[in-house]
Design brief:
heterodimer; A: alpha+beta; tRNA-splicing ligase RtcB; 8-stranded mixed beta sheet; 7-stranded mixed beta sheet; globular; B: alpha+beta; Archease, Possible Chaperone, Chain: A, domain 1; 3-stranded antiparallel beta sheet; 29% helix
Chain lengths: 476, 148
């Protein structure tokens, strides 16, 4: 991206002044190097989002922003229903509520060293992953409806996990306002056998080791120390979310004109929040959030079982669960007043600061854990939400490294087999049914996650707490 | 080959084009239908080598849309949805278009990780880079980015 097109506000804050039909400025949080490396499409997409009705304050790009469809991935925008605000299926994305959860194991790197291969094998057997994989559950229509209403709470009541898990999940594991009646039969059909499956692409389960603590106080509140072993799970609402995204994107693209919404890009397809279509999407999208929460909860249960085979005394405690692709009704201060806004975060993480209502009591003084995934060969990070984040970008942060190279180009650069062998030499065991899938997800095809997280920290979107490196990677 | 003769030659092909996070699929052919068929092949090639797919099971789909571009995206999304719901992989396609109606046929088999080594699931066909057009040489193009 050409820096001359931006107004520099600080080392990590860059503005796109309102021009043309933009109602608000665009704001990109990133270091100069990251901004230079960003695709021009990010500029275009951040600007386009700024033209949508009812947008409040600014259209934001996080440090990992890259070219998405309509909204950039790493895009955040809030809309006020009282000002004709919209809701956009493209602003949420296909993989609704794709997210990350991290489990503490109580084990250390030394403690698992001798059983690492065995654990990798056990996890790869226990967690269904890859194209065409099915879970252990088969949901009939009534059970599907119950899952779409109940989310992780449904899963826990079915025996998948502990009641205490729910304290450490956004919305306590159940998104209110879900309306399963607006989820199509085809979406249900796609999900019938997919609860408890990881999926493919950039989804993974990783066993990781804490290698560095940046904030001892927050790390203590989160219960993490150097050399601790943790497990991170990255996946979403599977076929159900994909189908909901597909159906509503299509419907909104055709309906926008009937609402007199002028779209600079068809992919910005949206409807007024207060319209029959907007409300139907909201109900279906919230059901998909519950689907993702249930999915990660069932995978958590399978992970605990796999650990139990090798480490019978290990207790896997949920640190936190964050969602990336959502639109949520939240209360934020704008121009000195509280406003109820619909905040779209597409490839961005909610990052509530200290004292936010609803945070688990243990995290109340340090802020919400913000879980940032890297790649199979690079670090992941745990951050904490900040007080400043509320004013910066409605308490939002980055979500991962973000791609720097297309999948197509990645397969030209790397061989999956060679990557697996190279990572093995670094002590990382990769289990995947697809070597091409591994090549497409090569660490080199992603941005430098350290740079993304440092920019997030410097911009005060969230503060670094701990660095994690992968030991075992299960991929679809 | 002189412009205008390419379509008459029956030349058809598919290709992928770059998109940072996802993947572009493009079908080229002497007719709109052929371009749609080739683009479907491009999409399935994102998952596996189409040559590895046995045409054992037939799936038929009907779509209606006022614009050919929406008809194209509906065609791909019908295939994606069926691949997901039935754990299928397709490798051969046939499309007929009459006004705003598309009738498509797809042949494939149950996904077999050991044989197909599927790389990614396709989540949905998007409206990004969505185009259906005929070039001066007569060749039709149908393309869009698919979310993977």
């Amino acid at each position: 991206m050409e820096l001359s097109r931006l107004a520099r506000k600080s080392d990590t804050e860059w503005w796109i002044p309102p021009a043309g039909k933009m109602r608000v400025p665009g704001v990109i949080f990133a270091s100069e190097k990251l901004v230079r490396e960003m695709d021009d499409k990010v500029y275009e997409q951040v600007s386009n989002v700024a033209t949508l009705p009812g947008i409040v304050k600014a259209s934001f790009g996080m440090p990992d922003a890259h070219w998405g469809y309509g909204f950039p991935i790493g895009g955040v925008a809030a809309f006020d229903p009282d000002q004709g605000g919209i809701i956009s299926a493209g602003g949420v994305g296909f993989d609704v509520s794709c997210g990350v959860r991290t489990l503490l194991t109580g084990l250390t790197l030394d403690g698992i060293a001798l059983s690492k291969k065995q654990l990798a094998h056990s996890l790869s057997r226990a967690i269904p992953a890859g194209v065409g994989s099915t879970g252990r559950l088969h949901l009939d229509d009534d059970e599907m409806t119950a899952m779409l209403r109940g989310g992780a709470q449904w899963a826990v009541h079915k025996g998948y996990g502990h009641l205490s898990d729910l304290d450490c999940i956004e919305e306590r594991g159940r998104m209110t306002g879900a309306e399963p009646e607006h989820v199509s039969q085809q979406a249900r059909k796609r999900m019938r056998d997919e609860v408890g499956t990881l999926g493919s692409g950039n989804h993974y389960l990783e066993v990781q080791c804490v290698t560095q603590i940046f904030d001892k106080n927050a790390a203590a509140a989160f219960g993490i120390c150097e050399n601790d072993v943790v497990v991170s799970i990255h996946c979403g609402s599977r076929g159900l979310g994909h189908q909901i995204g597909t159906e509503f994107l299509r419907e909104m693209a055709e309906a926008a004109a009937s609402y007199n919404i002028e779209l600079p890009d068809r992919e910005l397809a949206c409807a007024p929040i207060r319209s029959p279509l907007g409300e139907r999407y909201l109900g279906a999208m919230r059901a998909a959030i519950n689907c993702a929460l249930a999915n990660r909860q069932v995978i958590t249960h399978l992970t605990r079982q796999a650990f139990e085979e090798i480490f019978p005394d290990a207790e896997l405690k949920l640190l936190y669960d964050v969602s990336h692709n959502t639109c949520k009704l939240e209360s934020h201060r704008v121009d000195g007043h509280e406003a109820d806004l619909f905040v779209h975060r597409k490839g961005a993480t909610r990052a509530f600061g200290p004292q936010t209502t609803g945070l688990p009591s243990a995290y109340k003084t340090v802020g919400q854990p913000v879980l940032i995934g890297g790649t199979m060969g690079t670090a992941s990070y745990i951050l904490a939400g900040t007080l400043e984040g509320e004013q910066r970008a409605f308490s939002s942060a980055c979500h991962g490294a973000g791609r720097s190279m297309s999948r197509h180009a990645a397969t030209k650069h790397w061989s999956g087999r060679q990557l697996v062998d190279q990572l093995a030499q670094q002590g990382i065991i990769v289990k995947s049914p697809s070597m091409r899938g591994v090549a497409e997800e090569a660490p080199g095809a992603y941005k430098d996650v350290d740079a993304v997280v440092n920019a997030t920290d410097e911009a005060q979107l969230a503060a670094k707490v701990a660095k994690l490196v992968p030991i075992i990677v299960v991929k679809g | 080959m002189k412009p205008g003769n390419l379509a008459a030659s029956g030349a058809r092909s598919w290709e992928h084009f770059a998109h940072m996070a996802d993947l572009g699929v493009r079908g080229l052919g002497p007719s709109r239908e052929a371009a749609f068929e080739e683009a479907a092949l491009a999409m399935c090639a994102a998952v596996t080598d189409p040559a590895l797919v046995r045409p054992e099971v037939l799936f038929e789909v009907d779509c209606d849309a006022r614009e050919y571009e929406f008809l194209f995206v509906d065609w791909l999304n019908a295939l994606i949805s069926e691949m997901s719901a039935r754990r299928m992989i397709f490798g051969k396609f046939e499309v007929r278009i009459s006004n705003s109606h598309l009738h498509g046929r797809a042949w494939g088999e149950a996904a077999d990780p050991a044989r197909h080594h599927p790389a990614v699931e396709v989540k949905g066909a998007t409206l990004t880079e969505l185009k259906v057009f005929q070039k001066a040489d007569g060749l039709w193009t149908a393309q869009c980015v698919v979310d993977v």
